[in-house]
Structures are given as structure tokens and as C-alpha cells.
Amino acid sequence: MSAGLAALALAVGLELSLGEPPRRAHPVAWFGRLVGPMDREWSRPRVAGLAVALLLPALAAGAVIGLVALAGRLDPLLGILLAGLALFASTSLRMLLDVARDVIAASERDLAGAREAVPALAGRNPEALSAGELRSAAVESSAENLADGLVAPLLAFALLAPLSLSLAAGGAAWIKAVNTLDSTLGYPEKTHGTASARLDDLIMWVPARASAVLLALAARNPGALARAREWAGAPPSPNSGWPMATLAAALDVRLEKPGVYVLNGLGELPTVDEARHGVRIVALAGALSYLLAGVIAWS
């Protein structure tokens, strides 16, 4: 087994057994604390934002590359261990799917609880959301997070693993750092976050579309991709519409963020069973993404 494949296997095992590192020990939380002071008024916000978008992910990636390379020189197994831990910290799926399942279940019996839980998945005001809209948010978020939370860092790791284990781990960390900057700063009202949002748009172009293909395969519905093309441009993001629209087509339901976009407007909002089926499709697409990453890393 190659070092990259071994590190990937370790990350998969940790994902299945733990789901997510404890927050106090989560490198993404550490990075978030580093980003916090950058979220303020700047005299030249676009220049400051560009510097933040370029330097902070480079710092995160450089730290991971250095640590994994040093560990590998001391002991190859230690290098594999640190690379696997870095990849595990850079990816996220199981926890998000668990929260989505909780929101879907609560939408049937505890609307207040579902509204309380949904902000952990989707950035929208939950107070006026109906049960169907809450389930829609859970399904949409599951599809979108497949792309940025799993496929993007996995793809970076797999492509770089044949070259260098430390570069592979650093590439996954860089992707995660860019995603974190976008989720923290990348809002229209934050001029200093424009560069972070644009960089995230650029790096997510391929992973979003790859995620759409994986979702269509997982749903055993290749025609969903053709239907998704009709709606993928509805969300403001140039990328997130692809996995969400593909899942809307595969389930033949309407997915909607009120006042922002509608996917498959002729359909109905998902029922509990349809929403649960959607989460299962995302979980299977996640498994396929790990398998694909293994094939690429091994080759």
C-alpha cells in the first residue's frame, strides 16, 4: 500500500469512528480563531482582503507540509499518521449528515427543534420556515457540503499524493482554509471578503461538478445531470447549484431557499421519506468519493 493510500485509509477510519475531532482540538477551529481578527473594518478593504485570502491559507498549508515532511523524515509511519490526521481534519461529512438527519426527523414532530438545529447546516433565518422548507435546507446543505466538505479536499489530496505525501496533506489543508475563509468572510456586505469568495469560487468549480456526477451515480439516475443544468445557475454561487440541483432532480423534489432561489420549481418540497433518501444518496456519493480518491492516490 502506498503512503498516500495508507493515509487516506486512516482518514476514512477516523471519519467512520469519530466523525469529527473535538472542537477544542480541531485545527479548523484554530484557523477560525486566526481569521477572527481579520474580520473588521480596513482602510483599504480590498487590498487587505486579498492579502488575507492569499496568506492565511498558505500559512495553514505550509504548517501542515512542514509537519508532515518532518515527521516523515523521523519515521515514515509517523508521516503517514500525521498526513492521515491532516486529511481527516480537512474533510467533513458524517457530522453534517447526522445533523441533517436530526433536522429531518425533528421537522415531523418538533418544528421548533428543527428550526433551532438548521442554522448549523444552512445560513438562513429559520423562524418562518415550514417543515418542508426545513427539510429542503437539510437536503440542500447535505449536497453542497459534499462538494466543499469532502470532494474538494479529497481531490487535492489524491492528485498530489503520488508526488509527495506532505504536499497532499498541505493541499487538503489549503482547500479547507480557503473554504473556511469564504464561509467566514465571503459575504456581499464584507468588502474585505471579496477575494476569499472569488478564490473559493475558482477552486470549487471542478469539485462542485464532480460532486454532481457522484450524486447522479449514487442515485443511479444519470439523467439528473441533464435536468440539473436547467437550474444550476439559480443560486448566487456559481458552483453550489450543481450538486443541489442534481439532488433535486434525482429526488424529483423542489429545493428552495425562500427569496433567493428555487430548484425544480414544478416539484413539491421534500417529504420526510424523500429527504431521508436524499441524505442516503449523499452518504453513498461520499463513499464513492473516497473510493475515487483511493484510485487516484494509488495510481
From TrEMBL:
GO terms for cellular component: plasma membrane. GO terms for biological process: cobalamin biosynthetic process. It comes from Halalkalicoccus tibetensis. The chain crosses the membrane at residues 47-70, 77-97, 150-175, 279-298. Belongs to the CobD/CbiB family. This is Probable cobalamin biosynthesis protein CobD. It is found in: Cell membrane. InterPro entries: Cobalamin_biosynth_CobD/CbiB. Coiled coil: none annotated. Converts cobyric acid to cobinamide by the addition of aminopropanol on the F carboxylic group. PANTHER family: COBALAMIN BIOSYNTHESIS PROTEIN CBIB (PTHR34308). Keywords: Cell membrane, Cobalamin biosynthesis, Membrane, Transmembrane, Transmembrane helix. Pathway: Cofactor biosynthesis; adenosylcobalamin biosynthesis. It is a multi-pass membrane protein. One of its GO terms (molecular function) is ABC-type vitamin B12 transporter activity.
